[in-house]
Amino acid sequence: MNVASWLERTARMHPDNAALLLGSTVVADYRKFRQEAASVAAGLIAAGVAPGDRVAIFAGNSVHYLRALYGIWYAGGVAVPINAKLHANEAAWIIENADCKLVFVEPRSRPALDKHSPAITSLDDVELAPLMDMAPVDAPIAREASDLCWLFYTSGTTGRPKGVMITHGNVAAMTACYFIDVDTVEAEDAALYAAPLSHGAGLYNFMHVMRGARHVIPASGGFRPDEIFSLARALGRIHMFAAPTMVKRLVAASPGKEDTAGIKTIVYGGGPMYLADIIDATRVLGPRLAQIYGQGESPMTITAMAKSMVSDRNHPRWRDRLASVGRAQSLMEVGVIGSQGQSLPCGTVGEVVVRGPAVMAGYWRNPDATAAALQDGWLRTGDMGSFDQDGFLTLKDRSKDVIISGGTNIYPREVEEALLSHEAVADVSVIGAPDDEWGEIVVAYVVLRDGATADEGALDAHCLESIARFKRPKAYVFMDRLPKNNYGKVLKTALREDWRQRA
Ligand code: AMP
Question: Which residue, of 12, 152, 167, 273, has the fewest CB within 10 Å?
Fold first, then answer.
């Protein structure tokens, strides 16, 4: 099977459905999208790309991005999406590590890559248009479920990134789980790509291609709340992935009910969504939020919580459930294990493991890292969590983020939740800092809301109301904003470094 066969099938069944949109303007229906992708494939084959060859895309979001992706898959190639915000040298490292045959780039990054790359095609009208005019291939080149489809480099905070090998079969399982556990998709829907296509957001294209729905690239190419609300008004039934910080910004910018009416679904995930924030979001954005917990190594496919559960305020355990990441997705097995690898009962915190058809084939040309991540068929996620009686998984932290103070485990997330429920606190991140007496102490980095005031004493008193005494931060640092990566994740390594310098 080849994921491009979904585009082939949709284009035959619904050729006139709108497919690609730039802002609210339709630039291709499914007949045209299919032809353009099949023509790009012909161009790639003419350039020497054989089935299984890697082709990188180093670019921000654009309509061409989707044409390039499907062109690669029609040709039987493997897409290597590279975060557009990386430095050219970092991109060059990935291109070389993946042994790419060809690279699609934004014209502006071309000069920096020219000396590194085998063959470069600019993702613009000048260089892509002639490809799109070539005689198209008849059909996608046949692939096995075990063949590589998407080689995604993890944004590891230390060391070199690793190439996560996602097969056509992995994508099929992920897509099936989405329909079973997360949401329905209809032809009238519109996938809005406000987060980078090179990351998780790009994976939502598959369900929307399968159903003949619209794919919308915002004219700004990125995330602008007012633009999103205006597209929602103009297009209706929009679907988007939003990292927790993006959800917060949407909530803050939401002008009112008529603007949210055009939003069908917002899938949140990619990092912890704090209870206070998700409660706010369900109030302001309505019953439109669904959650997914996944990681590059099991993309979008570990646990999920459908919209009906996220918004079921009358359920007696609604708050507990909202603080969780939902239940195991239907084609996957999810477990929690102890330090000896033993399976742990409900209510006990351990490392989350997952196995099933969406789990990666391994890391590209990196058997040691593969052996460490995949053990006895299970993927070690590095996340700590516990199940409740109903099968809802609550994450505590990444295993490496757990703070051990006086021999006791403290999960930063719990302390962060407690601090965030204080009205003056806008954002917070908690780390463990080395300490002679305790081994580690809890340090809180806090961003206050505009105009709000709260000192250490007030925050300490507030923590005492909701968490155990020993979990309270022993030190506070107040900041204007927290250091975050391109996907909105707080860089705890930067905070640890900041603390080291202060100490
Ligand atoms: P990445 O591989 O960059 O997508 O990062 C995956 C990691 O993000 C996971 O291992 C979790 O630590 C975190 N993560 C992903 N989804 C969620 C979620 N819904 N809630 C909390 N953390 C999440």
Answer: 12
Contacts of 135 (CB under 8 A, 6+ apart): 39, 42
Q: Tell me the C-alpha distance between 326 and 303, whole Å.
A: 6
- CA-nearest of 170, 235, 239 to 211 is 239
**CA dist 15 → 19, 32, 75, 136 (Å):** 9, 8, 21, 16
User: How many Å lie between the centroid of ligand 1 and the Cα of residue 271?
Assistant: 5
* pLDDT tens digits for range 367-403: 999 999 999 999 999 999 999 999 999 998 777 788 8
Q: Is 293 in the pocket of ligand 1 (CB under 6 A)?
A: yes
Residue nearest (by alpha carbon) to ligand 1 atom 21: 272
Ligand 1 site-directed mutation target among 152, 241, 383, most atoms within 8 Å of CB = 383
What residue spans of 146-224 are helical by DSSP H?
168-177, 205-210
Rounded CA separation 91/404 (Å): 37
* Residue 395 CA to ligand 1 centre (angstroms): 10
Rounded Cα–Cα distance for residues 240 and 193 (Å)? 6
The three state secondary structure string of 455-498 is: CHHHHHHHHHHHCCHHHCCCEEEECCCCCECCCCCECHHHHHHH
Shortest-distance Cα residue to atom 11 of ligand 1: 271
Q: What are the pLDDT digits (tens) for 186-225?
A: 999 999 999 999 988 999 999 999 999 999 999 999 899 9
Structural contact between residues 105 and 123, judged by C-beta atoms closer than 8 angstroms? yes
Reported as type and span, the H/E element at residue 263 is strand 263-269
- Closest atom of ligand 1 relative to the 200 alpha carbon: 4
Q: Which domains does the chain have, with CATH numbers?
A: 4-387 (3.40.50.12780), 402-502 (3.30.300.30)
Distance of CA 401 to the CA centre of its chain: 20
Tell me the average pLDDT of the chain: 93
Q: Is 76 in the pocket of ligand 1 (CB under 6 A)?
A: no
Listed residue (419, 427, 418, 473) closest to 449, CA to CA: 427
Contact indicator for 180, 305 with CB cutoff of 8 Å:
no
Ligand 1 neighbour 270 (Cβ under 6 A): yes
Interval between CA 352 and ligand 1 midpoint (Å): 12
Tens-digit pLDDT profile for residues 247-281: 989 999 987 776 789 999 999 998 888 899 999 99
Mean pLDDT along residues 297-311:
97
